Amino acid sequence: MTRLAEEACGVADLQRHLAIANRRVLVRALRQLEVDGLVQRTGSPDTAYCLTRSGVELAAILLQLADWQKRRRWAE
């Protein structure tokens, strides 16, 4: 999700960034995120995905959670 927070991305770009070997799995996940209202598909000329307002809000929360986890790991 953080990649989509930066910019709209096509499936191939997301697949490279996430190191997912199976394109079908990625597309299925993107479609579910679209149904959940977290991403939206942009159509022309090539299909790309970007975060919706809800997706942006969730990405911010997930980034805060990741930062918290990193701080906890270094504190121990």
- The string of secondary-structure elements, in order, is HHHEEH
**Class, according to the CATH hierarchy?**
Mainly Alpha
Q: Count up the helices.
A: 4
Helix content: 55-70%
CATH topology type: Arc Repressor Mutant, subunit A
Give the overall average pLDDT: 89
CATH homologous superfamily label: Winged helix-like DNA-binding domain superfamily/Winged helix DNA-binding domain
Shape: globular
Unreliable stretches: none
Total tally of structural domains = 1
Q: Terminal Cα separation, in Å?
A: 28 Å
The biggest beta sheet reads: 2 strands, antiparallel
Give the C-alpha Rg. 14 Å
- Strand percentage lies at 5-15%
CATH architecture annotation name: Orthogonal Bundle
Strand order of the largest sheet: 1-2
**What class, by secondary structure content?**
mainly alpha
* E-strand count: 2
Describe it.
The chain is mainly alpha-helical and 76 residues long. It has one domain (2-75): Arc Repressor Mutant, subunit A (Orthogonal Bundle). The chain has 4 helices and 2 strands, in the order αααββα. A two-stranded antiparallel ribbon has the order 1-2. β1 (39-42) and β2 (48-51) form a beta hairpin.
